[in-house]
Amino acid sequence: MESQDALDASPFCNPPTSDGEAPDKACEQQRLTFATEFVHRLQRDGYVRLRGHGISATQISEVFQAHKTFFDLPLSRKRELLHPGGARPARGFTPSHTEKTFLHLPHLSRAAPDAAEPREQFTLGPPTDDTYPTPWFPAPHLSPEHATLLTFYDACRTTALALTQALELGLGVRSGTLTTHCAPDASELTLNWYPAAAHAALQGPRLQRIWPHSDLGIVSLLFQDGVGGLEFEDRARGGGGGGGGGFVPVRPSAVPGELLLNAADTLERWTNGMVPAGVHRVAVPVAMRGGGGGGAAEGEMVPGRRSVVLLYRARGEASVAPLPAFVTPDAPARFGEMTATEYLKVKNKLTFGDVVE
């Protein structure tokens, strides 16, 4: 089990006010200390636990209530907001057993050809995106929940931008190296619902709550309930996408309001591999596995699990090739030229299959 304590992100997300004056030396030192450790943990583990991130416990509680209200609807009602699949951004509702995440890292998944994920998803994109609008019910049905999601989406985007500025400082590059590619961002807020499932069904090569993958975007901000099951690839034991290190269970937060941030694909590409994307999966919680005195009784059900994720993404036209600050004669570009939208469509086509648009 991992043992990360939470870093205090307040030097970037809740900086002290100084009536318009420049931050003093003590504040600047706090920012540098946080940014340095922030980047170090992303490089070492692929993720960082954070507190003091500027998103209130009330906002988190409200978004989880909206999450429950939506997923408690009958399936027929949720399907009115169905994401049609294909390469387009995954806006709207995705039913269980739809995504084929196992195809992205098959050497880690070791999944059967008919593998699936017993997980429902609802994804909300930028409210200003008229090309791929997010479907929603006509007012007034679930209007308060819709407003809650939009408010939470904006709060997460503000935090993600501040933390991207921290990345610039921690990586030792000039201000704006990353953030100039984020305006306007194309972020998505994703709500995941993992219904209760038989323990035995989640043990084989056909079903896993989420197969090993890395996220599309710069960073991801994750909020989860206390059920557990999230695991990151163990880089200390030879991970890094190769599969040799196995996975480390990540404990649910014992402190209300903590978030977990992981590095995503665009950050790995922009930094030319200096900050690898965090490969992760959701499996049976470690306390329910066999061996070591724990484990589940025959026929036991794995409880339902809820999570909310902000996938912080560059603007669609931005390049996701390595940025000049990270390319040298000794470290030539490892990734080819491609826009953020092109990259997303390549990945989504694999996940959701072909759909004529």
Q: Given the helix and strand composition, which structural class is it?
A: alpha+beta
Q: How much of the polypeptide forms β-strand, as a percent range?
A: 15-25%
Helices, by number, come to 8
Give the strand order, joined by hyphens, for the main sheet: 1-2-11-8-14-5-4-3
Overall pLDDT? 92
Head-to-tail CA distance between termini:
44 Å
- The radius of gyration over CA amounts to 20 Å
Largest sheet: 8 strands, mixed
State the helical fraction.
Answer: 25-40%
Number of strands: 14
Coarse morphology = globular
Low-confidence blocks of residues: none
Order of helices and strands: EHHEHHEHEHEEEEEEEHEEEH
Give structural notes.
It is a single chain. This protein has about 350 residues and is an alpha+beta fold. It contains 8 helices and 14 strands. Strands 1-2-11-8-14-5-4-3 form an 8-stranded mixed beta sheet. Helix 2 (about 25-45) packs across helix 6 (about 145-170) and helix 3 packs across helix 6. The longest helix has 29 residues, at about 145-170. The radius of gyration is 20 Å and the shape is globular.
